[in-house]
Amino acid sequence: METKYSYDSLGAPIEIVDDEPEKVGITFKGQDIHEDEQVLTHKAFVSGGVEWVTNYLFEDDIYDYIKTLEREDLIEILEKIDVEDIKAAADMKEVYL
Question: Which residue among 42, 51, 57, 59 is buried most deeply as judged by most CB within 10 Å?
Fold first, then answer.
């Protein structure tokens, strides 16, 4: 927070308190991140997997974020998920042929 001063018509200082938290970053969607605001971070591939960047996102934006990931990131994430959870999420059924 920053304290600023203005002056009244007689020249006396008037304290103006800016109570809006300081902007400390930006999410992958271009949303402002303010001081003491909780966000998630993800180190992601860019440029065809040639370099890494750290992205910030709000938890409510996870599904939108996943859609932006490159193939290598998606595979890395899926490799950490239990096979049963993947089968359920993909609506896979066991059949005998």
Answer: 57
CA–chain centroid gap for 8, Å, is 42
Lookup: tokens for 20: 């809006």
How many Å separate Cα 89 from the centre of its chain? 23
Cα angle for residues 6, 11, 14 (degrees, 5° grid):
35
Phi, psi of 67 (to 5 degrees): -65, -15
In order along its 97 residues, the chain shows pLDDT tens digits of 566 777 778 888 877 766 777 899 999 999 999 988 999 999 887 766 667 889 999 999 999 999 999 888 899 899 999 999 999 999 999 999 9
Nearest to 61 by CA among 39, 89, 93: 39
Give the amino acid at 35. E
Question: What are the Cα distances from residue 29, in Å, to 45, 47, 49, 86?
Answer: 17, 18, 20, 27
